[in-house]
Amino acid sequence: MGPASLQEDRELRKESKEEMESYRCLLQAGSQLESTLQEVTVPVSMKEVGGYIEKQVAYLSGRGEDSSVIITLPECSAFSDIPEEALTKVFTYLTLIPTRQPGVKFIIILDRRLDTWASIKTALARIAASFPGNLHLVLVLRPTSFFHRTVTDIGFRFSQEDFMLKMPVVMLSSVTDLLRYIDENQLTSEFGGTLDYCHSDWIVLRTAIESFAVTVKDIAQMLQGFGTELAETELPEEAKAIECLLELHTDKYRKLKDAIRSVSKEGRHLLSSLETTAKEDDSQWDVKLDWETVQLLAQLRDMESAFDGFFEKHHLKLHQYLQLLRYEQSFQEMELCLEHLTAQERELCISANSLAETEQALKRLNNLESNAQEVTARAQIIILHGHQLSAGHHYAMALIMQRCNELRHYCDTLTAALKSKHTHLLQTHQMLLCLGQAQTWCDDAAYLLANQLVDKFQSKEGAQAALRDIEKLLEGAPSMLSSGLDIVTAEYEAVITPHFQAQIGKMFEKHAAVQQMIQNRQACLRKLADKHVRPVQLVAPRPENTPRSKSPLFSPKHLKFTFDLSLPGKRASRKVPNSRKIEVMHDYQESRSCVSYSLDGDDSPDLLKHVMRELIETERIYVEELLSVLLQGYRAEMDNPALSGVLPPILRSKRDILFGNMPEIYNFHSVFLQDLEGCLEAPEAVGACFLERKESFQMYESYCQNKLRSEALWRQFSDCSFFLECQKKLEHKLGLDSYLLKPIQRLTKYQLLLKELIKYSTDCEGTSELQGALAAMLDLLKSVNDSMHQIAITGYEGDICELGRVLMQGSFSVWISHKKGPTRMKEMARFKPMQRHLFLYERALLLCKRREEHGDGCDKTPSYSFKHCLKMTAVGITENVKGDVKKFEIWYSGREEVYVVQAPTVEVKMAWLNELRRILTNQQKMLRKQQRASVSSEETESGRSSPDPQPHSPKHQHNRRWPGAPHSVDICEGLEEWPGGRDPFHPSDTEEEVLVQLSPGRYRVLADCLQNGPDSIIIKRGDVIQLQCEDNRGRLVKNVTLQQEGFLPAATLQLIIGGSRHENSSRLGPGNLKVRKLSSP
C-alpha cells in the first residue's frame, strides 16, 4: 500500500469516526423517544374495546374527592351480555389512562334506576371480579319503582356483608344523594351535574392520541432502522453503484422527512385541541394527562435533528466518495492516454538520413504534438478539477493532490521530450536543406560550365558575359559553402551522424572540385577577354574527316556535339549536296563527372524498398476500403431485412449500376495484393507482376464507363436514410460517393508509384519490366480516358463496338474538301476551320462535334455529335501540309474526301501519325497474309518490270513516289529495307501532295482482289485490267482477262497494281512487288 493509499485510509477512518458519532446521537434520541412511548402507551388500545366503549358500557366522567377518578356505568341493557374478558379489558383500559399518576383511586357510579336487584347484584359481582384498579367506592342508584326498590333493599341488606368485604358499596335512593359524595360540576347532566361531557368527542380524541403515539413509534423505528442501514452499508467500488445508492438513500430520506412532517402536523393539531380544551375547563384531568403523549413532538424533533445530522454526513461521504471514484477513473484514463503518447514519442525515430525522411518524421511529430496538446489540455482540466475538490475540503485531499502532481509530471515530461525531438528534427531538416542547396549549387555550377559555348569565348564580349555568369553564380552560393567544414560540423554537432558527416565531407570535396573548375574557367576567360581573341569558326564539309588537332581547344578529353544548322521547313534534298555543318566543342568532361558524383549519396535500395512498402500498404488499404463497401457495408446491407424499410426498391434493383463491377475489382485486387506482398523483398520483380495482370486491369474501363450512371443514381438517392444508416454503422466520415471514386483514384496512383520505382531502380534487374509496366498503366489510363469520351458520342446509328477499341481521341481544327469531277471544291471558307473531336478506332475514324450539355458545376458534361465515319481500309495520310508543321492530311477513298487536320501541338500531331501508321501497317500485313494464302502459282511475267538498279542513291530516293508520306498507308514492312529512310518521328519536308494518280490505261495485277457487293469484280493476280472513268463510287475497272466490269476504290487499286505517274514504274506493296503499265488509252 503506497503513501497515497495510507493517507486515504486515514482520512476515511477519520470521516467514519465523525459519522459514527452522529449515528450514536441518533440512536440515543431514538432510545429516549422509545422510553417515553412506553410510558404513555396504554397496553389496551381503543381498537380492542372501541365497540363496547361506543355502547357506553362505561366511561370516565370527572373526579371525586381526593382527585379520585369517576367511572360511570350508565343504564345499559347489554351489560349482562358483555363477556367477562371484554368487561375486564374495558375496565383495564379505563383504569390505565389515569394510572400515569401514582395512588389514583376510582369511584364507580352504577346507574340501575330502571333495573332490578338481580341485575344490580350481578353487576356488582362482575365489577368485583373484573375491576383491576384501586376501587375506592361504588355508588349504586337503586331502582326507582317501589317493588324493585323494596326487593333491592331487602336483597342488599342480606348481601351487604358479602359486597362490603370486596368493595365499599353505597346504595343511593336518588341522584340527589350523589351530591353528598361527588360535586355537581363533576357529574354529567343525567345525574343532575354540570359537567359538559361528549362521549363521541372523547372517543375521537382518544383514538387520535393513540394513533399519534403509534405513528411516532413507527417513525422512530424507521429512523433507527434507516440509520442502521446507512451505517452498515458497505461502499461499492463502481461509480454507477454509488449513484444508485445515493439515489436510493435520498429517496428514502425524503419519504421519512415527509412522514415526520405529517406526524408533526398531526401532533401540533392535537396539542392545539388539548390546549383549547384545557382553557375551557382546567379541571378535566384526562386532557391534562394526555399532554404528555402529545409532547412526544419535542422528542421526535430531537430525533429528526440527530437523523438529519447523521444523514448529511453520510450523504456527503457518499458524494465525495463518488467524486473520488470519478476522479480516479479520469486519472487512470488520462494516464493511459499519456502513456500511449509517451510510447509513441519513444517509438518516433528521429535518425532520418534524407530530407524526405526528415520531413516525414516532422510530419509525424507534428501530428503527435497536436494529439499531445489536445490530451494535455484535457489533463489540465482534470488537474483543475482536482484542485476544486481539494478546495471543497474533500476527505481524500492528499490523494487528489498527489494525482494532480502525477498528471502534471506526465505532461511536463512528454512536452519536454516532444520539444527536444522537434528541435532535433528541425535542426536536421535545416542541415539537410542547406546540404541540398549546396549540392544543387554545385550541380548548377557544373551545368553552367558545361553549357558555356567555347566559340562565344573568342570575342571579348562573349568572354565577359561568361565571366559575369560565373560571378552571378558565385554570388548566389549557399552560406554553408562559405562556412567551411569545421564550422558546419560544429554548428550541427547535435544532429550529425556518421552518415551525415560523410555526406557533408563529400559535398565539400565536390565543392572544392567545382571551385577549382570555376577558377580555371575564370582564369581562361580573363585571358581571352584581355587578349581580344578573334572568333574562330571551324567549318568542315565532311565532319567525319575533320582533324580535331587543328584547334588548341581540341583535346581527347573534350566531347563533340554536332548541330545541323539547316533551316526548319526547308527540304534538305533540294540544297547543294555539300552542305556545311558547324562543329562546336564543349568542355564537358569535368561537369559530367561532377553530376555523376552527386548521385553517389543516394541510398537507392532503401528508397526502393520504401516505395515498395508504400505500394503494398496503399494497396492493402484500398482492398480494405473495397471490402468495407461491398461485404461489410452498403452492398451487403441491401440484403439486410432490418434495413428493407429505409431502402427504396428501385435502388435495390439498380445495385449493379450503383456499384458497377466493383466486386470483380475487389476479387482481382485481393489476389493482386498477395502478388505485391511477394515482391516486398524483391521490388524489381513488381514490373513482371503488373505485366502478368495487364489484361485484368482492363476491368477498370467498364467501371469508369459506368461511373456517370452511378453518379446520376447516387445524386438521386444520396439523401436516402439507408446510406446514412450504413455510413453511421461503418463509422465512415465520408459518404458512399467518396468510396465509389476510390477505384479511379487508385488507378491513377499506380503510374506514380511505378515512376518512383523506376527512379530508384537504375541498373537493377527488372528495370525493363518496370518500364513495360509503366507503359501499360499509362496506356490503360489513356484507354480509360478515351473510353469515357466515347460513351458521350450521340447520333451514331451503328454498333460502335464493331469499330474496335478506341485508341486515341482529341479536339482538332479540320478543313474538309470533296473532289467533285475534275476539280476539288471546298465546303467551307478557306480560313475558317471546323472544330471537330476525332475518335480513332481500330477499324474507323469518327469525326464528331463537341457540345456542352446544360447543367451546373460538376453536372455539366460534354457530348459529341456524330458527323462522319471513315473506314480505315479506305484511309490514307499525308504527314505534312504546306504552311503549318502542325497540320496533316487524312484522305478517304482515293482522295475523294480530304480532311486537313490541325493539331494543337506538333507532339499531338506526331502521336496521331504514329498511331495511324501502326493501324495502316497492320492492315497491310493482314492483307498480304490473305494474298499469300490465295496465291496458287508464281507470276510468270514478274520479271518484265525490273526494280530500280540503284534504289539507294539519293537521286532515286528523291524520285520515289507512293501514296502518303514515307510512312503512310501504302508503306508496308519493306520500310526497313530502305537505308537512309527518315526518322518516323520527324515529318518530311515535302510541300507537295505525293498521292499517286493512276492514269487511264491497261495494267497487270500483282495481287488478288476479292470483294463482295452488287458492283463487285473478281480480279486475280496476273489479270489484265483497264482503268476507265472515275466517280464517287471509285474507279470503273474492266477485267480484260475475265471480261467483267466493276468499281474499285482508289486505295484498293493502289494495293493490287501499285502506283505510276507519267508512265514511270514504281516500287510498291509487300515484298517489293512490281507493276508495269501495259498501254495508254
TrEMBL record:
Region (Disordered): 927-966, 1061-1081
Family matches, as SUPFAM superfamilies: CRAL/TRIO domain (SSF52087), DBL homology domain (DH-domain) (SSF48065), PH domain-like (SSF50729), Spectrin repeat (SSF46966)
Name of a matching Pfam family: RhoGEF
Domain PH: 805-921
Classification via InterPro entries: CRAL-TRIO_dom, CRAL-TRIO_dom_sf, DBL_dom_sf, DBS_SH3, DH_dom, GDS_CDC24_CS, PH-like_dom_sf, PH_domain
Record domain DH: where: 607-787
GO biological process annotation, one example: intracellular signal transduction
UniProt keyword list: Guanine-nucleotide releasing factor, Phosphoprotein
Phosphoprotein as UniProt keyword: yes
GO CC field: cytoplasm
Gene Ontology MF, one: guanyl-nucleotide exchange factor activity
Gene3D superfamilies recorded: 1.20.58.60, Dbl homology (DH) domain, Pleckstrin-homology domain (PH domain)/Phosphotyrosine-binding domain (PTB)
Residue ranges of domain CRAL-TRIO in the record: 43-199
Compositional bias segments (type: Polar residues): 932-947
Homology family: Belongs to the MCF2 family.
Protein name as annotated: MCF.2 cell line derived transforming sequence
Organism: Pundamilia nyererei
Underlying gene: MCF2
